Amino acid sequence: MSKTANTVWKNCLDFIEDNITAQAYKTWFEPIKAVKLTDDALSIQVPSKFFYEWLEEHYVKILKVALTKELGEKAKLVYIIKMENTYGNKKPFTEKIPSANRGHLKSQDVDVPLKNKSPELKNPFVIPGIRNVKIESQLNPNYNFESFLEGDSNRLARSAGMAVANKPGGTSFNPLLVFGGVGLGKTHLAHAIGVEIKDKYPEKTVLYISAEKFTQQYIESVKKNNRNDFIHFYQIIDILIVDDIQLLSGKAGTQDVFFHIFNHLHQNGKQVILTSDKAPVDMIDIEQRLLSRFKWGLSAELNHPDYDTRVAIIKNKLYRDGVEMPEEIVEFLANNIKTNIRELEGAIISLIAHSSFNKKEITIELARKIVENYVKHTKREVSIEYIQKVVSEYFQMDIDTLQSKTRKRHIVQARQLAMFFAKKFTKASLASIGSQIGQRDHATVLHACKTVNNLSSTDKQFRKYVEDLNKKLTL
Ligand code: ADP
Ligand code: MG
Fold it and tell me: Scanning 161, 213, 372, 472, which has the fewest C-beta atoms within 10 Å of its C-beta?
């Protein structure tokens, strides 16, 4: 009859699952691990401080009800925060937050772990009077939150962005790193955060810059011998948004200067927002000390939009452009352009252009022709979803079995093959592949790829699987 952390938590989860949406449950409760049960206190481990704050803000009531049912009136909840180690941070950071007594689930403040806080600033002075110089934010007002539609694929990143916009520099998401594939809305979201901050805090200096332009400016400053002015300029910004930081890879000088600017801003409570087409763990040729800075805050991924979000985005675009389009064409577009919102918008624009140039109605035939052009010009990417379908059909199992936690050898192998092909045929990061194939982490995916490579050179039967699947997937 003795209760354990796991059984208590399991019962809480059952209760919570019945009372919130499936999506919310999946996002906010599945990643939690029960760690310890002592007397009336249950310790749960949450993946980040963001998680903890979110739970406290949105789910503290239901957590309290669930836990009181299990442990009685004196129930306490203790959070243990793990530093984001999903993206390659090997050193877990844990911290206990004792909750207040008497069953009140109120938590004390947590400090963000800033181990390497000591500054190495070479230029700690500020140019007198420079604050009066108005700095243009370089923001595009059309890229705002209102036009950035919410869906499962962007919920976490969008809410984190909102949180940052409400309290720039005042949340644990500093830096906020938004990452994801091409055309999924990184630039749009980065602008939206900036636009929102300008709106709420007109006195703050916001600056948006692409990493490419930042690099050019830096090179220019070195040529003109005013590297220090360059650094000072960036050090007085309140909210610095740097887009596509993966472009800093291999550029040691620029990384170095960015490192100093970043530290200065961070230490002074200024907000840094970054975007990248890769998760930190997948970035190459970026210095370790910089990578570890990126992991201080929150990394939030933008995924491929699901069908409903695609439909919503199309309709929103049509509405803004004042164009009407039959429902079946909207559905056709949403069904056929899946992996890139920019392409989706491109197809809509050419559809509208064709129909108005030729004074023709927008028909499904016209839509088909245009989508064909799009699909022809852009190499079609096999989706991870499709790979799992093909692999599980091949082994005659369903996708749930493929994704399950079982260690049965043939199922493990099928899963590893799915991961291997996902790495081979998509541009998805290891972390993203793992999360889509049964909620595994990037290390598991990496291990799977190695195993498949090994087995295909030692095991004939296995090699046949690889060849068969390869054929099916490249058809
Ligand atoms: P990325 O920087 O990731 O390559 P962008 O931010 O340039 O992508 O987005 C590509 C296009 O898709 C932009 O026109 C943007 O407005 C649009 N877009 C992306 N995400 C959304 C969204 N959630 N809602 C509406 N439009 C979006
Ligand atoms: Mg972009």
Answer: 372
- What does the pLDDT read at residue 132? 42
Is the pLDDT at 218 greater than 90? The verdict is yes
CATH code of 5-98, in short, is: 3.30.300.180
Phi, psi of 45 (to 5 degrees): -100, 130
Residue 86 near ligand 1, beta carbon < 6 Å? no
Question: Over 70: is that where the pLDDT of 112 sits?
Answer: no
Pocket test for ligand 1, best of 342, 348, 427, 429 (most atoms within 8 A of CB): 342
Residues of the chain with CATH 3.40.50.300: 155-302
Ligand 1 atom having least distance to the Cα of 142: 16
Q: Which atom of ligand 1 is nearest to the CA of 143?
A: 16
pTM: 0.60
Cα–Cα distance list, 255 to 86, 211, 213, 244 (Å): 24, 10, 13, 13
Rg over CA atoms, the chain: 25
| Ion ligand 2: residue ranges with CB closer than 5 A | 186-187
Separation CA 8–CA 6 (nearest Å): 5
The closest alpha carbon to 278, from 430, 57, 76, belongs to 430
Q: Outline which parts of the chain fall under CATH 1.10.1750.10.
A: 384-474
User: Considering the domain 307-376, what is its CATH architecture?
Assistant: Orthogonal Bundle (1.10)
CATH number of 384-474: 1.10.1750.10
- 145-175 pLDDT, tens digit per residue, is 999 999 999 999 999 999 999 999 998 899 9
